[in-house]
Amino acid sequence: MGVSTPALPSVEYDDINPGIGTLNKEPKSKGTSKRGIHFNPGDVLFGKLRPYLKNWLFACFEGVAVGDFWVLTSSKIDHGFTYSLIQAPEFQYIANLSSGSKMPRSDWGLVSNARTFIPTNLSEQKSISSVLFGLDTAITLHEEKKCLLERLKSALSQEMFANKNGYPAVRFEGFDKAWKQSKLGEITKVIASKPYISTPSTHGNYLVIQQGDKPIAGFSNSNPFKNYNNITLFGDHTLSLFKPRSPFLVASDGIKILSPSIEMNGLFYFYELEKYKPKSEGYKRHFTILKKCKANFPTDIDEQKLIGSLLLRIDNLITKRQLKMDKLNETKESLLQNMFI
Asked: In which element (H, E) is residue 282 found?
């Protein structure tokens, strides 16, 4: 046991990014004096409370683990391999055979007696952990870049759209006119939609979009709609605003197809802003309410396009980072499945 000091920082559950094994704050900046389990560089912290949350950490410094942690160390196997082993499906299965319903905890009696295979060659242990550490590092870098892009987008969204005086704080060079106040219902018309009837498949030329938590329902070769270039889709419930990336689409009943008189991307990002979402409706953003919202819009179509294209470009970069993270996570999961016996 030990007590945290500025030189011996503490690590708590909330300090760890679940499933990633990284810290979300600088431990030495906390400045708290708390009692916990002393750990050394190379030790592995495993959160035994609600083990399915995957609160684990490979310690790169000396400190104190505060809360429901096991501090794992070994003189017989490589520390990095220990960290890799606790992420493997076999270990996770045993660790999640927990006791308690509201506050489940891993049972050390089960975990400590579970048998597993360990490479007898230390170099093989280190090679396995090195590969997995490399993937973790790559995933973390992409996550950090994604977060930076999201913060950039949020900052630009707040500064590049006009406030009540009709002028934005940040503008592209060459634009100085005041923005015009309008209601969404005044600059947008609703195109009549035809519900999609046939069952969508995994293949086809046309994207099938539906209402609900999973807006992409599949693909089809049946297209009951005209190809609209400048449109935004709006769902009254969980779909919210949706900008189709495909030139062909099939919308299900319950989605309104909006054809705005201003540039589509600019409209989409403007109404994506949190301050324009009806608070009283929670997650349900009924179009009958939203279309009455008043907001300022650029009168110059070129300014609309520049704003929309800039934010769209940032969105595309965020999406690329997420796709790379997803691919790396899939690779890691596959290796965890196949590199351990």
From this structure: none
